[in-house]
Amino acid sequence: MASKKKMPTRSIRVDMPDELRPIYDVCQAALDEILSTDSLHQALSALMMTKNRQTNREEIVSVVGSVWDKYKTQVPSQARYGRILFRHIENMLKSRGRAVAMYTVLNTSGGSLAQAQSTLAKMEIYATMTELRAVEKWDSPPALPKSSIFVMNMGDGDNEICHMDDQEIRFKVLPGGGEVYATRSMVIPTSVREQWNGVVCKPSFTVRDGVGRGTLPYECHPDVVEKTGRIMGVDLGDLQPYTAVVLYKDGTYSQTYIPSRSLRRVNEKRRVLRQERNYLRSRVFEVEGYIQSGGTGANRDRQDIRWSGLRGVESKLSRVSKAIAELAAAELIYIARQELVDEIHLEDLRWAKGGNTDWTPGMMRDAIISAAELAGIKVYLVNPSYSSKEHPMTGERSEPDKDRVVRFSDGSEYDRDELAAINMAVRRRRGERAKKNRKIQLRDKHTSTPKQLKRKSSRRSERKALVASIKRANDMTSSDRAHLTVGARPGVAYMPRPGRKVESGYVSPWCVLDTRESLLLGRYAPISSQDDQVSTDLSRQ
Question: Does the reported pTM lie above 0.90?
Fold first, then answer.
């Protein structure tokens, strides 16, 4: 029997059910005792994990089983929740073993990243160049950490402690000394991908800063894309997140696509944050150096404020960079769909070392690959060498001038980013060494007016229209309607869970109101709809 094709998964964030929190705290306490006890820590560090999970579990239980025996009486389904705890420890040991292997191989290969990567691949350890560059900076192999945030992965259990059906999810809990189930509605928000196939996987939960949060994975059906032979070449950059050109089958190519105005504004925000970060960093380290050298008169409280401000700016900068990557990926996939593209070529920058900027091409690449996976579009990495200097037909190389224009001996002129995008589309992908580059028909006047995406309507107007339709169509009580809020994404509206008091304005994502016909799972959904009202016939599930 042929195996079922594995579907790509995405996830949404949910809150941890209150009933699970005592069980989580017990498991976290057991984990803390195990890792903080020197004898147990040394015994675990000596274990070698294999591919046999049963053997791994038996070895872990032989070391830490006595500790779990002290805690297990406080949880239901003791063996099953214990299995989740032991699986967490197993993952820690495997992660540490992988890191030790990378460190050992890298230090025995003469510092060659390529050779180390090849050796690790033979050991079935597939390390990225980014990981190996991080390992290069280590002075010693990593040790097993003495603390860890417990991950309660319900997927490591079974249906006895976590059962799911089409409409609800049940967790076995132990309130008041009796084994019962805590039930949550299987509500999927409108922020899920359109390709959701109706399958929701078991969640996992963690507690950070005293707040329990969870991740609820779901499966998606990738789009089916017709083979058109059209290729989109994408040049990723820092000053301009992307420049894209679509190469058609006959060798002609499209106008140059550049980021939308909204994306450029976010990118400008990143530039301002970098300036602020660099200023704070220079001041912090200047004063810190003065203090450590024995200088007097430094205000330690002001220095603590500088450190706090620096950490805040760096955190914001990281979030903005991630947002830029996701926005750029969304725009590129939109362009690809409009142009009927079935293949995207990106620069293979896995070998490039990062500079002094926060530009992370790997983050951009991963975001594009993730978005293209659901769109059914293949993404290939191509050789980026001299892509912004080389003529796409003759191979002649020329340096760009101060205006970022590249001029060649045949009189043609190219914007360097546009030239790079054309070369990305023309060049063969990795693994096609026997094939020639794609053919191309250059324009007489190459430089074209760049084309940027424009939204037909604002997100604010979309949210207002959504809330208005919900209020008209939904049979909520007046108190429920008072708590109705608009989510951070278009098409998402949050409501309080039945029987739960809304505290500090927080509304549980377990009760997200779904307004799409394909995802009608909310208990607050209206019975019928007309015209612009939301359709909610639950029989369609």
Answer: no
